[in-house]
Amino acid sequence: MDRDRRLICKATLALGAASVLPACGSSEMPFVCSTGATAAGNTADIAVNNAVMHPTPTTNVFICRDEDGYYAVDAGCTHLGCDVALKASGDLKQGFACPCHGATYDANGQNPTSPAPMPLKHYGLCAQPSGTLLVDVTEAGVDPKVRLKP
Q1: CATH class entry, domain 22-140
Q2: By three-state DSSP, how is residue 148 classified?
Q3: 143 Cβ neighbours under 8 A, 6+ residues apart
């Protein structure tokens, strides 16, 4: 009897967890945003090959969209923390540049040039069914290849 009850409890927990996952993101995302995630605009507001800076309580983040989907990168240059900007306004393909000391990054925040020592951090990104994007800065170190599918 106790074994059956445990099996039913495990199945119920698994079903409950599976029903929560689609609410924040897609099956392409390896995580679920925490309750501390902050709203970062709407999917309809970010054109393909563009990025929009979004302030969070702890850092500024770029919400980016390329042909593969949406992703979030830290706006802070890895040299001294100055906020980077798009090299060409409205054109993510040109990448990012730091106005303080000239470091540059590609559109994915990778391949930094001197004096930046590392790529930009990627953060967790989820979408609500309404299209509202949520960025989770507690989920740093997300694989740069991961995209939230439109």
Answers
A1: mainly beta
A2: strand
A3: 30, 122
> Domain limits of the chain?
22-140
Angle, alpha carbons 81-86-87 (nearest 5°): 105
Name the strand (E) or helix (H) holding 127.
strand 122-127
* Amino acid symbol at 71: Y
Question: Per-residue pLDDT tens for 3-52?
Answer: 444 444 444 433 333 333 344 444 344 456 778 899 998 999 999 999 99
> Which 3 state secondary structure label does DSSP give 135?
strand
- DSSP line for 75-116: -B-TTT-PBPEEEETTEEEEEEE-TTT--EE-TTS-SPPTT-
Cis peptide before 115 (omega within 30 of 0): yes
